[in-house]
Specification:
The chain is built from ten helices and eight strands. With about 280 residues, it is an alpha+beta fold. Helix 3 packs across helix 4.
Length: about 280
Amino acid sequence: MAWHNNNWVSWIKDPLWFFLLAGAAIFAAAQWLAQDDIPYDITVSAADTQRLQDQWQLQMRRQPTPQELSGLVEQFVKEEIYYREAQRLGLDANDTIVRRRMVQKLTFLTEDIATAAPLDADALSRFYEDNRDNYRLPERFTFRHRYFSVDRRSNARADAEAALTNPAERGDPFMLQKSYAQRSVREIGDLFGREFATSLSRLTPEDTWQGPIRSAYGWHAVLLSDRIPAQLQPFEQVRERVAADQQQATRTAANAAYYAALKRRYRIAYPTDASE
């Protein structure tokens, strides 16, 4: 008998049980206090649409396109639905900042529930296989270049072409680096412009200078020493990234499904011009 009493005392003192009981009590209170008079009808007025347009124009300094306006209206509807659901859970307060926070809290709650289960190894592996392109290293290039400025020279292209066979011609000072190692086409394009990156990607590694290639700055003689083909990173090497990506995808899908289910419960009236 004493053993059973000791077990009972240990069970009562266990923080986990206290947390579960407290959580259940809070949920029950929220259900009891939840408001039943919150309507399921949402009317998006012309004034609402105009307000959304004005806010967009203030931030972006232009009128929204019809597609952008439709997206703004849908975001307004989503916020209203989430706000009312938060009210039904007793989370409401008569404050704009609190309102937005409540919407955010409901979103986080959906995400937490969706990702509460531990990640399954097989599910991770399947996610990796279904999204292999996300874990593929792009083709990378290693090269040096000599720069010929169109502002400093009367014929920068001709000078760059002459430099292909004249190693003594060093070119003009360049604001960036003179050499780059294992850079992707996208990275090279961000630095030199898309035209340069595309032209470089068509070259074959050689021991001689090639070009000339035009960039956003001028003309370049290029020495391409290496190009590494695109390759898929092994699963074990990117396992943590796959896990993070899968969790994010789960959150996104859970929020979309939850919102779609909630929206079906509402009757929404749009202004005629907003639905065109």
